[in-house]
Amino acid sequence: MPPMIKAxxxxxxxxxxxxxxxxxxxxxxxxxxxxxxVHKLETTLRTVHxxxxxxxxxxxxxxxxxxxxxxNQKSIINFSFADASKPHDTLPIRAExxxxxxxxxxxxxxxxxxxxxxxxxxxxxxxxxxxxxxxDWTALFETATSTxxxxxxxxxxxxxxxxEVTRITCLTVVLVDNFNIPSPISRQSLVIITEEINNQWLKxxxxxxxxxxxxxxxxxxxxxxxxxxxRSSTHVLPPEEILSIIIPQYETLWRVxxxxxxxxxxxxxxPTLPARISSVPGCLGSNxxxxxxxLKLAKExxxxxxSNKRIYRHSPTVSDHRKAKxxxxxxxxxxxxxxxGPSALEFNPSRxxxxxxxxxxxxxxxxxxxxxxxxxxxxxxxMVTCLVAAMGRxxxxxxxxxxxxxNDKEGQKRQVIKTARDKxxxxxYTLCK
Length: 433
Ligand SMILES: *[C@@H]1O[C@H](CO)[C@@H](O)[C@H](O)[C@H]1NC(C)=O
Ligand SMILES: *[C@@H]1O[C@H](CO)[C@@H](O)[C@H](O)[C@H]1NC(C)=O
Prior knowledge:
Blueprint: H1 2-58, H2 63-77, H3 87-95, H4 99-105, H5 116-130, H6 137-154, E1 160-161, H7 162-178, E2 179-180, H8 187-206, H9 217-224, E3 229-230, H10 239-267, H11 273-277, H12 289-304, E4 310-314, E5 325-329, H13 330-335, H14 337-340, H15 357-362, H16 379-395, E6 401-405, H17 411-414, H18 421-425, E7 427-431
Antiparallel strand pairs: 1-7, 2-3, 4-5, 6-7
Helix pairs in contact: 4-8, 6-7, 6-16, 7-8, 7-10, 8-9, 10-12, 10-16, 12-16
The structure holds 2-acetamido-2-deoxy-beta-D-glucopyranose (2 copies).
One 2-acetamido-2-deoxy-beta-D-glucopyranose binds near residues 183, 225 and 226.
């Protein structure tokens, strides 16, 4: 017996110890689980808090916050963040941010130079082109419609690649408007020039200070062979000079024109659209009420798709190269719900019937002084309206054909157009049978 009596406490001891270990392991495990849960909860709360902070920073609810943010953005655009106002100080702040674009195209213009005298002479050329008193808008409109008709005949029965067609049309109109063109430009040349400009642009955007984009001899060769001269001169322009003049116009134009056409004629068809543009092209340049109504098409297009989504500056006082790059978010200024209301993302030219003071402050499609785009005084709005109306006239509205996007099936339903180049490339126009 005694050995058995002895064995019982021993057994009990083991069971108790085992249970003890098991229990403490369970408690430990529960504690760990509990701590993990607390940690998870804390992280979640932190994330939520950060998101709330971030959204009140950029999408801000209180009106003062929005006004502070707006002033801040404008001070980047107008160089007051760096206390600069004279070309000697402002040009380097801008040129550095545009350096790779300059190299890819061999540009020597106001956007890329640090020399006040080159800046001045470029502005003189640009303004003589833009402020030409004898511009015939009806002739430009007809250039656009005849180019579009040729494109439509070029791909009978198939669907039209809208990005390419818009690029060709915009480039043709810009070249005709800017230069003497001694002989008709072949479609093949227009395709190569527009594609190469696109390629060079992408290369410039993806390059770093260590890998600079090289100029395109294909692009330069095609531009040289056109033998273009300025209207007031017989000097045949080298490709770099042609690009310096056309890039700020053409490259900022075609995406706005394409997106505005899609929004106005397909995604937000409005019963007031035909009346709004019925006087185009005759009204263009007239400063009449009819023209003001028509130009709201361009104004609303430029609101949702400003030619530059962001305006980059290079801070002269910050030595760290990455931190020195600042930008103002023009796209957000133009779409902010606290500024534009709940319909901020909708295309509605009538909103320009009357803007609130805050909307007027935040609407900056041509940037600000001292480097406001020379196209600001009506030329840009007229050019966009002329080209968009031409597309509407030739391609018709949603009744005549339909549009779809092979690269962005969702995007075409959401009614907010993605403006990244690859997304724009997918838009097709198909005539209804
Ligand atoms: C630049 O913009 C800021 C913010 O709106 C403004 O306070 C300042 O007066 C502007 N500077 C100039 C020179 O216009
Ligand atoms: C451009 O000029 C060159 C040399 O004068 C000439 O050979 C060429 O045919 C011209 N090209 C066009 C498109 O006019």
